[in-house]
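Researcher: Structure for this, please.
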Amino acid sequence: MSERDPQFESSFMDDYFAEADEHLLAIRRCLLMLDAAQGADVPPAVLEELFRSCHSLKGISAMVELREAELLAHHMESGLRAIRQGDVALDGGNLDTLLAGANALEAVIVAKRQGVPVPSEELAIAAL
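Model: Predicted structure, token format:
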């Protein structure tokens, strides 16, 4: 068994936080664009970018074993898949739920970055 290298772990987490920030920014930007498009056809490219950002955030969160963020991103991804496939209509309520999921994701990642207890993701997941 090899010893952990704290400097490597710190650098790896810095990379995680930088990439997570990019995905969170993309998620918020896409949600704003979808909100602006309410009442019209859902822009497929925006929905696809939103889905990809959630998918990527799920994957990198799994790599750093941040299970709460991984689960939130997974459930957001599942909801977006249902919208993409036409099983669920995108409306104001669904947008609010996705925004709450994004807020919960950000809260989990910020808590991890600050080294404080990670908030529960259960309410956001139940809504998703």
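Researcher: Any notable elements?
Model: The CA atoms of residues 1 and 9 lie 16 Å apart. The two ends are 40 Å apart (CA to CA).
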